TrEMBL record:
This is NADH dehydrogenase-like protein. It comes from Streptomyces rimosus subsp. rimosus. Pfam families: Pyr_redox_2. Residues 6-342 form the FAD/NAD(P)-binding domain. InterPro entries: FAD/NAD-bd_sf, FAD/NAD-binding_dom, NDH-2. Belongs to the NADH dehydrogenase family. Transmembrane segments: none annotated. It is an enzyme of class 1 (oxidoreductase).
Length: 457
């Protein structure tokens, strides 16, 4: 019997999950006849809806509702939990490290394929800032978002119980580097949550906390345009948030954030959200890349000059066919920005094109005009610039919620998120820190006399 043609999807994020979803619908017949097989590889068995991470950090949405279980939504695909650690496209083979191969030390599973969809997304773009790698935290995963929430609440407990003013000061100082939507939304939501939580502490006032946003350029939230970006700066400053534009983090050694304007802040929290870069597996794959390290793709989402290889999303440099005006000096051609709006739409075109190739049909080009963005600045506050319309305050926040509710994948997740928001409107906010979840054996080790309670981070 003929082996099924295998489509290997590397990454189960926006692009990977939506591509597989579309493929399982488009190739229903071929999948049923076992003429085609779709294999999705991701280290996590879920897709993360990243725009909800700030709300998960604030406690407005449960962590498990910002993720979508891949096995449930992709019943006709094969989901492999593992990481692609090497790719040999000339031999059409991927090496996948799974939890089992890691344990038995066999060096990874060899996974041959016919068509490759390479969509590992991006990782935080760090700079060689002394102390950053040791003391900073990113904001890209649900684990980071929940870890940060617990950490912030734990700092309030430390500040409330210490007698040392230096420790108290550092515990109540929160530095965020990077003024894109990830950094601004994370800071705004966490500050909002911490200010609310402070009312339950007899000796911590909101005015005791220092929230600092450090941005290297002269504006924040470029996604919502200059007018709404300036409004966001004013709104944050009115909340006593110290927004420092045209400023960089110079170092974070011994938990002291030193800024390029000369300011020094002893701080136990440093969140790094200063942009993203393509996942390192892209460079290791040897496939054609742009100067910025993204996979060089055609408008039909093929990797340029390579047969049977496709990409989209944060990892891919896809020409923006709708862009007006000349390209930037450091960008030889106009490319789609790395965001969810493009990732979802590219995934659909990519799946159509892969299915078309398998059926010997022509492929189509991807073209989508960026519609604008919405951003939350905490409960009932936001900014939006969508289809040329600018909104701020409550209407923008409401639009942000409606938009993301319509976008979060699956009816199941929409219903759960809506139920949570409705209940949150009726009851008080959750302000509990479950940091001890990160040390589940601590209690038992203490009982067994082999350990001690974990130290506060
Ligand atoms: C906090 C935050 C808020 C955001 N808010 C917005 C917003 O409001 N609007 C918007 O448009 N965009 C937003 N974005 C950006 C958006 O989430 C990304 O552009 C989008 O996720 C890109 O999709 P992707 O599929 O390329 O990557 P991802 O969704 O990141 O998926 C990549 C997947 O590949 C997997 N992977 C990585 N390496 C490997 C490997 N070696 N082998 C196998 N699998 C691998 C990863 O585990 C991951 O699941 C936000 C991002 C963040 C972090």
């Amino acid at each position: 019997m003929k082996e099924p043609a295998r489509i290997l999807v590397v990454g189960g994020g926006y692009v990977g999950m939506y591509t597989a979803l579309c493929l399982q619908r488009k190739l229903r017949q071929e999948l049923r006849r076992a003429a085609v097989e779709v294999v999705v590889v991701d280290p996590d068995p879920y897709m993360t809806y990243q725009p909800f991470l700030p709300e998960a950090a604030a406690g407005s949405i449960s962590p498990r509702h910002v993720v979508v279980p891949l096995r449930r939504v992709l019943p006709h695909c094969k989901v492999v939990v593992g990481e692609v650690i090497a790719l040999d496209h000339s031999a059409r083979c991927a090496t996948v490290e799974t939890p089992a191969t890691k344990e038995d030390g066999t060096g990874g599973l060899q996974l041959p394929y016919d068509e490759l969809v390479l969509a590992p997304g991006s990782v935080s773009r760090t700079l060689p800032v002394p102390g950053l790698a040791e003391g900073g935290i990113g904001f890209k995963t649900v684990e980071e978002a929940i870890g940060l929430r617990n950490h912030v609440l734990e700092q309030l407990d430390i500040a409330s119980s210490t007698r040392d003013p230096a420790i108290r000061d550092a515990a109540l100082t929160f530095v965020f580097v990077g003024g894109g939507y990830a950094g601004v939304e994370a800071l705004a939501e966490l500050e909002d949550m911490a200010r609310y939580a402070a009312r339950y502490y007899h000796n911590v006032e909101p005015a005791d906390m220092k929230w600092i946003l450090v941005e290297a350029t002269g504006r924040i939230l470029p996604e919502v345009g200059p007018v709404m970006g300036q409004y966001a700066v004013r709104e944050l400053r009115a909340r006593n948030i110290d927004v420092r534009l045209e400023t960089r983090l110079e170092s974070y050694e011994k938990r002291v954030a030193v800024l390029s304007d000369g300011a020094r802040f002893p701080a136990r929290t440093l969140v790094w959200t200063a942009g993203v870069k393509p996942h390192p597996i892209i460079a290791a794959s040897g496939l054609p890349r742009t100067e910025r390290g993204r996979l060089r793709c055609t408008a039909a989402l093929r990797i340029e000059g390579v047969e049977h290889a496709w990409s989209a999303g944060d990892a891919a440099a896809v020409p923006d066919l709708t862009a007006e005006g000349p390209a930037k000096p450091d960008e030889p051609r106009r490319e789609c920005a790395p965001n969810a709006q493009h990732a979802v739409r590219q995934a659909r075109v990519l799946a159509d094109n892969v299915a078309a190739v398998l059926r010997g049909e022509p492929v189509v080009d991807y073209a989508h005009k960026y519609a604008g963005s919405v951003a939350s600045l905490g409960l009932h506050k936001g900014v939006a610039h969508v289809y040329g319309r600018q909104l701020k305050g409550y209407p923008a926040w409401f639009m942000h919620r409606v938009y993301h509710l319509s976008r979060v994948p699956t009816f199941n997740r929409k219903a759960r998120v809506l139920a949570e928001w409705t209940l949150a409107g009726l009851f008080k906010r959750e302000i509990v820190s479950l940091g001890s979840l990160e040390h589940p054996r601590a209690e038992f080790e203490l009982a067994a006399g082999t350990g001690r309670h974990h130290e506060a981070s």
